[in-house]
Amino acid sequence: MKELVSILDGNAFLVSDRRGDIEPSYDFPTGLFSFDTRFLSKWVLTLDGQRLHALSVDDTQSYRTKFFLAPGEPTHYLDAKASVIRSRAIVGSFAEELTVLNHTEADVEFTVRIDIAADFADLFEIKHRRQKQGRTTVTVAENELRLTYRREAFHRETTVSTSAPGQVDTTGMTFRIRIARNGRWTTRLRVSSVVFGARGEDIRATLPYGGSRSADAIRAEQQELIDRAPKLGCDCQPLAGAYRRSLNDLAALRYESIALGVRLIAAGLPWFMTLFGRDSIITSLQVLPFLPELVPPTILMLAGLQGHRVDDFRDEEPGKILHELRYGETAGFEEQPHSPYYGSADSTPLFIILLDEYERWTGDATLVRKLEPQVRAALQWIDTYGDLLGTGYLWYQTRNPETGLQNQCWKDSWDAISYADGEMPGFPRATCELQGYAYDAKIRAARLARTFWNDPAYADRLEREAADLKRRFDRDFWIADREYYALALDADGRQVDALTSNIGHLLWSGIVDESRAGKVVEHLLGPRLFSGWGVRTLAEDEGRYNPIGYHVGTVWPFDNSIIAWGLWRYGFRNEAGLICDTMLAASRYFEGRLPEAFAGYARDLTDYPVEYPTACSPQAWSTGTPLLLLRVMLGLEPQGEHLIIDPAVPPGMGRVELLDIPGRWGKVDALGRSRDAEDQPGGG
């Protein structure tokens, strides 16, 4: 059973222990959060001065949880004289119904106490504890406790109210109650969190979906999204469970952006409940064949916030697509550069790739024409600011050495890019997958220019540049004696020679020379990289390998979904199927919800995939992974006004049927069977 329990609605979420209690933490974001601020840091229930213990937790729905509790140590449960039910939900605000049940044959008096505090910590302060610069005041009223934080114009507020009369003090609420024999007592607690704007208004109340909503409305909204998705019928229970969980989590991760008031998908709970360039784009690519209408808001938001100036603090440059957008105190006072922050080198080419893929699925030529200036600006960035050394490659080096990101590729932790011996190169760095993305972006942009912008000369130029990049890339990145592509080039043009999962992204982009593809595949599925559960981020014999290191040996589901897509692209259908099969097998051990990452231990060493200790769950691009794997297994590929369906279902998976796949063709159905299923009576 999980030690922590989470509920969420949009980017408001609450993380508690299994009793439902919240205690202040600077290690992990426990508490009630919204728009990067913690509005509750303490929420601890006692009965007659005793902490409670969980009998059972019902957390089947994303936005509500029910805790069944008893006082005393677990050995005393059998003769417990009372029990407690905490039924809570996030429905815009946070609501908790607290019920105490008397199980004796006599009237009993109880003292119920809830200790309450709000530290208004910024999410970045959870990771790096710092002294608050503002001032918190606490106001006590009848059946209400109000906590207010102010720092100049930055103003946040938490109000806790109760439906039952109680004694309110500056640290909580106390209820002295008498319950008849076999009776019960209930109070409804409501926690309202307010994000004030510059004019003193509650910003969220001005949004289309702002303010509190009923549980029924949230349930109906989530169900409506799930009902729009294609219907899956299959013989493989892990696939069915992962697909259902993915749709549920995608519905739960949608939130309203303050900037434009549109619905976006948050990148992941608890650290990334906001818009991320790279994560949001890859998630959009994963969900596109299933729920294409979720994609345009992300494209438009990224286009609207495209860089237009040189700003060293934010790593902003003209044409660059953002990395991360935050709303908290540290961003507001420029203690962090995330308002927005542009420190990723891959979000810009990925933006072009997504727009083209979206048009290929939907036929939405209007959006492609509307965003022609933004695509041209992104391509210009790739060739100018992105090419820091003027070598024709995409490089990165932060302009902000104090608070900017060192690594600006998807493996963005400090030690993720290294030579085989574990040493790390200097900056700038040109990682291999960035070149693949740039290649793919130019090929796709050429199609857009020729088909929609009436600029064949520009299309021809882009295709020439892409062909030249592919040729030079093969020359400069291929390690001849080891027969794989280098992780990166350093500033001197030397190969950063570690063997990593990044080479799978090269297959997806199409930059790999056909003559090299077989060797790349051998490495991806060889024992150094392939754990048996998936492809590791770093080969197990490399200097920095650590099976529980964030980007240096763990297995990332999203990474594996992109690799499977790349294997499919180069015709390695059985190998793609193997990754699909092992990812889905792993999902069984996470109740259908693939986490951000899990340990890279070999499968014969552990009987199950080992959890990574601080992985986000749900995380958007892990949530999208089963969807992309399903696309790969069924061989779904748009071609003109038609959808090509060319299934290659892994052995043992049986029948896989996907009905009502949406796109420019209307809706079509796809059916695939594994070969062993075809050999059975009635197979075919």
Automatic annotation (TrEMBL):
Residue ranges of the TM segments: none
InterPro entries, per database record: 6-hairpin_glycosidase_sf, 6hp_glycosidase-like_sf, GDE_N_bis, MGH1-like_GH
Residue ranges annotated for the Mannosylglycerate hydrolase MGH1-like glycoside hydrolase domain, each copy included: 337-589
SUPFAM superfamilies assigned: Six-hairpin glycosidases (SSF48208)
Residues annotated as domain Putative glycogen debranching enzyme N-terminal: 8-190
Name the UniProt record assigns to this protein: Amylo-alpha-1,6-glucosidase
Species of the source: Micromonospora zamorensis
